[in-house]
Design goal:
The structure holds three protein chains of three kinds.
Chain A (H helix, E strand, L loop, with lengths): L1 H32 L21 H8 L3 H32 L5 H11 L4 H14 L6 H5 L6 H12 L3 H9 L4 H12 L1 H17 L2 H6 L8 H10 L6 H37 L1
Helix pairs in contact in A: 1-13, 2-13, 3-7, 3-10, 3-12, 4-7, 7-10, 8-9, 10-13, 12-13
Chain B lengths: L1 H7 L5 H41 L2 E2 L7 E2 L3 H7 L2 H32 L6 H13 L2 H11 L5 H6 L12 H26 L3 H9 L4 H12 L1 H16 L3 H6 L9 H11 L3 H25 L5
Antiparallel strand pairs in B: 1-2
Helix pairs in contact in B: 1-2, 2-14, 4-8, 4-11, 5-8, 8-11, 11-14, 13-14
Chain C lengths: L1 H23 L8 E8 L2 H17 L3 E8 L4 H9 L7 E5 H8 L5 E2 L11 H6 L18 E8 L1 E5 H6 L12 H13 L13 H15 L4 E2 L2 E2 L4 H14 L20 H4 L5 E4 L1 H10 L1 H6 E4 L11 E11 L5 H12 L2 H8 L12 H4 L4 H9 L1 E2 L7 H16 L5 H17 L1
Parallel strand pairs in C: 1-2, 1-3, 11-12
Antiparallel strand pairs in C: 3-11, 4-11, 5-11, 6-9, 6-10, 7-8
Helix pairs in contact in C: 2-14, 8-9, 8-17, 17-18
Classes of the chains: A mainly alpha, B mainly alpha, C alpha/beta.
Chain lengths: 276, 299, 428
């Protein structure tokens, strides 16, 4: 036991060392984000800002409608995440625990859609969404993204691991399929649901091409499009530090969500053991 | 109906009752998939069918599509740019995602334990994943500069971003940095739902940590490993953001999806881009089916 | 079977799109009219446009201008996708290469409407502008499709402090030819300024525009009909000039050490790392704001030449043009004319030149530092040659230059390979 404890500690030290190496790149990014626009950066230049420009944070909000973009991204990101958790968990449950004709075909069709590069799908999709009258609207940003093949696949695989005996026991207690989903399946795979929520939020938060195509009106722009506009401003007035600052500020909600959910990834162990 | 319900508790008639219950629940079970399937039909399959059809057309986006049969496929089969992009895609996918998968599996083994500081280390590995590719590229251009952090650290004098020999490695390094966290989270989530009592049993049988990993953890992790492996192939083969932001395909780093993007939107050759999508679809589906077969539970 | 079905679907979508477009349009008069107008992003330019739009809407209460800015890197993607089903804007603001390379051949733009522009005919409109200034938005028959919103010439900026360090007098040091640049670079390097002159190695369009600058001077072309011409003696001479400045004993800088951050293309010049660079007017304005200390030492001189007896400079322009699918073309042109009537606002607000006859003698132009050099640059300016699928050709030029500058390939081999690629693009 003791030897194992030592071995895991060594493993943790190695993981921490790797983590810090990875982190150093981000430290550099954060320090650069506080530099003055004209200050020398990159090789040979000091990591430390010559003068700390705290007003770079304020300048992010002055350049473009950063607050509108932030709000839009939040609305879209939260809606898409909630919808995905619902649709993917339900579909994963359906594909994993029920037998009906066409089930496997349906599942394979869903997986197959993952294999097509998104960029080419966007052109016909744009025309469809336009015909639905959803350009420049939250519907156009949210509904086409309301489910995901990856999410369904992930949830099906996770629900596969939930023992059938658990379901059978609940059924004998008089629980219907919906109650089983809510009171047996969801608690058993809450770790995976957390991971799914995190990935969907993150992917959507970073999504650039679709929001660009579907929203022309600045009122419906999301952060990545706004950041691209900032980055493409050839006026050095914004400069790399402010762009980096904007990009780093944009990461904060994702990090917050990670901190909120990460316990779930490891705590599932105890819960699962408790149910058994 | 009420008679069926009471009968299910009778041992002798149980089979019939169970069948009717499963028939009813299979309809309910199908209904659970309906929202997702409806969304897929409209927003994925319908556009996908159009892409498949466009592969046989000349289509500049702004004029009517013109049927050209197999011309797009014939062009691609002898296009050096497309063939080079295919090779580069394989290099990138294997280099980045092979490494990231192994690294994530090892890290997950360590970080799934309740050790002091594990939460903080998990956060460190997750942070790059949360960072956007655009922000990552700005920082990495500095890290990869000839006088930058990486050369300094490794004691090298390598032109990471401006030579065809090394630019592909630069992309692999940056992408491992960013993508390992993705698989780490999946593995952690998978390990979290493993039944703890099996471990206890193995421990009581005197199995060491490494034995337990090979004979308990890995087999039980198979469903999530399948997700990871398939996602690794997909993310690897369909990557284009890192290439777009770091090199925009210069110095032999153009991957297939960047080629698709440029062909569709910069050169407005939507038909040809659709043809690449069809080829990619067939290849990826074949790979996925092989993976599913290889990792299927032996039961 | 499938073919007809797809066509039916496509036709259905087209019909639906045109119905929507119809219902959105309104007859002229006192009816409310909304004109959509898209440009790329450039904050000072956006400010000028917004101020002028306010003024126009005040004078024309029945008209609303729906003004949107699109990130530069995504401009083409966004524009092509929206034009694919007729949902694009009424007024498009595009650069000359895109107009001549993509938009005119595909018939996406409407010719100018002289009446709405307050002229009897197209010749009267053309006469308002400097000779050749509308060539960037004209087809082979001379039909004009847009009015310029900005017009950029190129020149050489030099850091006089660096020159002083090397004991060079900026007034007398010859910089007439590229060989002169190389000679000055050796002295600057000896004085501690190794990055004396470097081309910019950013996106493929930057490679292409710098290469075309040299190509104009050597008299080469990119393609002749649908045959690549990058291996002609003139084109090889242009590539050789680039190679000589970037590699070997005559190198003016180490290209590996050049900044590659497209967001701030002139970073090395602005931070005082680089001594000389090819610049545009907006670049100088940018440096004056971010790095005023460096800017104080910068001087603008005419672009070095391959053949000083026949000086040639590269110009490029952005034009205001009207979407052919627009249902309110006359109203759109009237608004464009209103914008064109305010060259001073553009010059003062963004340093954008609107090349109307006599622009360089206006008081606003005289305020621009080194206006004589810029005026000269415009007078010997030429637009880039463009080809169909020009984006792919730009990628080929980028690869050709990279092969020579960074991967040690010979000029001849790289040019031959690139020329074959261009032929393949144009015939494929």
């Amino acid at each position: 036991m003791k030897r194992e404890r030592i071995a895991s500690s060594i493993g943790l030290v190695a993981a921490a060392a790797g983590g810090l190496a990875i982190f150093s790149v981000l430290v550099y990014a954060v320090l650069t984000a506080f530099k003055a626009p004209g200050e020398k950066m990159g090789a040979g230049a000091s990591w430390w800002p010559a003068e700390w420009r705290w007003d770079n944070i304020a300048r992010v909000f002055e350049a473009g409608n950063f607050d509108t973009y932030f709000l839009n991204s939040t609305i879209v990101g939260v809606s898409v995440t909630v919808l995905n958790v619902i649709t993917c968990t339900a579909a994963g449950y359906s594909f994993s625990k029920f037998h009906y004709p066409g089930r496997n075909a349906g599942f394979i069709l869903v997986i197959a859609t993952l294999m097509i590069p998104l960029e080419v799908l966007y052109v016909p999709l744009y025309k469809l969404v336009f015909d639905l009258g959803w350009t420049d609207s939250f519907a156009g940003l949210i509904i086409p993204a309301a489910t995901s093949a990856f999410g369904i696949f992930l949830m099906k695989q996770a629900i596969d691991s939930v023992p059938d005996e658990l379901l059978e026991a609940a059924r004998l207690d008089g629980a219907g399929p919906f109650r089983i989903l809510v009171s047996v399946i969801v608690p058993s795979v809450s770790g995976t649901i957390s991971a799914l929520a995190l990935f969907i939020f993150m992917t959507n938060w970073d999504s650039h091409l679709w929001p660009l195509l579907v929203a022309s009106d600045d009122d419906y722009r999301t952060l990545p499009v706004g950041l691209a506009a900032m980055q493409s401003n050839q006026l050095g007035d914004t400069g790399i530090p402010v762009i980096l600052m904007a990009a780093l500020l944009a990461v904060l909600p994702t990090i917050a969500l990670f901190l909120l959910l990460q316990k779930k990834f490891v705590e599932g162990i105890a819960m699962n053991a408790g149910i058994k | 109906m009420s008679s069926t319900r009471t009968m299910t508790v009778l041992p002798g008639r149980r089979a019939r009752g169970a069948r009717s219950l499963s028939r009813r629940s299979s309809l309910a079970g199908f209904l659970f998939a309906v929202p997702a399937l409806a969304l897929f039909a409209l927003f994925a399959i319908y556009p996908a069918i159009q892409v498949f059809a466009l592969a046989f057309f000349d289509y500049s986006l702004t004029s009517a599509p013109e049927f050209v049969g197999l011309k797009n496929f014939a062009y691609l089969s002898s296009d050096p740019r497309f063939l080079e992009a295919t090779g580069q895609t394989l290099f990138y996918a294997i280099g980045t995602y092979g490494t990231a998968l192994l690294l994530a599996l090892m890290l997950a083994q360590v970080l799934s334990q309740k050790l002091f500081g594990a939460g903080f280390v998990r956060l460190l590995w997750f942070l790059p994943l949360a960072t956007s590719w655009v922000a990552a590229s700005i920082v990495w251009r500095v890290v990869l500069h000839p006088d930058g952090m990486l050369n300094e650290l490794l004691g090298l004098d390598v032109q990471w971003l401006t030579s065809s020999a090394y630019a592909r490695w630069a992309l692999v390094i940056m992408s491992i940095w960013k993508e390992t966290g993705f698989f780490l989270i999946l593995f952690l989530a998978g390990m979290a739902s493993l039944p703890q009592d099996v471990y206890e049993a193995a421990r009581l049988d005197g199995a060491g940590a490494i034995r337990r990993f090979w004979s308990v953890t890995l087999p039980l992790l198979r469903p999530i490993t399948l997700v990871c492996v398939i996602m690794a192939v997909l993310r690897g083969v369909q990557a284009f953001s890192p290439q777009k932001v770091l090199t925009n395909g210069a110095f032999g780093t153009e991957v297939i999806n960047l080629f698709v993007y440029k062909t569709a939107f910069e050169s407005a050759r939507m038909g040809r881009a659709s043809a690449v999508a069809v080829i990619m679809f067939i290849a990826l589906l074949a790979i996925a089916l092989v993976q599913i077969r290889a990792l299927r539970r032996k039961d | 079977m499938r073919k007809t079905k797809v066509l039916a679907v496509a036709a259905g979508i087209a019909t639906a799109a045109s119905l929507v477009a119809c219902s959105a349009s309104a007859p002229s008069g006192d009816e409310k009219i909304t004109i959509s107008f898209w440009t790329h992003t450039h904050p000072p330019m956006i400010e000028v446009f917004e101020a002028l739009i306010d003024e126009y809407e005040e004078a024309n209460p029945n008209i609303t201008i729906d003004y949107q800015t699109i990130p530069n890197g995504d401009f083409n993607t966004k524009m092509l996708t929206s034009l694919s089903n007729g949902s694009g804007p009424d007024i498009i603001n595009m650069d000359d290469a895109a107009i001549r390379g993509e938009y005119l051949p595909k018939g996406l733009l409407a010719p100018i409407d002289p009446e709405a522009l307050g002229a009897a005919d197209a010749a009267e409109v053309a006469a308002r502008y400097v000779d050749g200034a509308l060539a960037g938005a004209s087809d082979e028959d001379g039909t004009i499709y847009g009015l310029p919103s900005e017009f950029n010439g190129s020149a050489l900026a030099i850091n006089t402090a660096h020159f002083a360090d090397a004991g060079l007098d900026p007034a007398t040091t010859p910089l007439e030819t590229w060989d002169d640049v190389s000679a000055a670079a050796q002295k600057l390097a000896a004085a501690g300024h190794p990055q004396a002159f470097s081309f910019l190695y950013l996106h493929s369009l930057w490679y292409a525009q710098q290469y075309q600058t040299l190509l104009h001077q050597t008299g080469g072309v990119i393609a002749d009909g649908d045959e690549g011409a990058l291996d002609s003696p003139e084109a090889i001479a242009a590539l050789q000039t680039w190679a000589d400045l970037a590699t070997g004993p005559t190198a003016a800088a180490d290209p590996n050490a050049t900044s590659r951050e497209a967001t701030t293309p002139f970073q090395d010049l602005a931070t005082g790392t680089q001594s000389m660079a090819i610049v545009y007017p907006w670049a100088m304005q940018q440096i004056s704001e971010t790095n005023p200390e460096t800017y104080a030492n910068l001087q603008v001189v005419p672009l070095p030449q391959a053949n000083p007896s026949e000086p040639t400079s590269r110009v490029y322009a952005y034009y205001l043009a009207v979407n052919k699918a627009s249902k309110q073309q006359a109203e759109a042109w009237r608004f464009i004319q209103f914008l064109a009537d305010h060259p001073t606002e553009f010059l003062e607000g963004t340093d954008f030149v609107q090349p109307v006859v006599g622009w360089e003698t206006t008081p606003a132009a005289q305020e621009i530092p080194f206006i004589d050099v810029w005026g000269e640059a415009y007078s010997v300016g030429r637009f880039d040659q463009v080809t169909p699928h020009y984006a792919e050709v730009q990628d080929v030029i980028q690869k050709m230059v990279n092969d020579v500058v960074f991967d040690g390939k010979s000029v001849k081999d790289a040019a031959a390979e690139a020329s074959a690629s261009v032929t393949r693009i144009l015939q494929g």
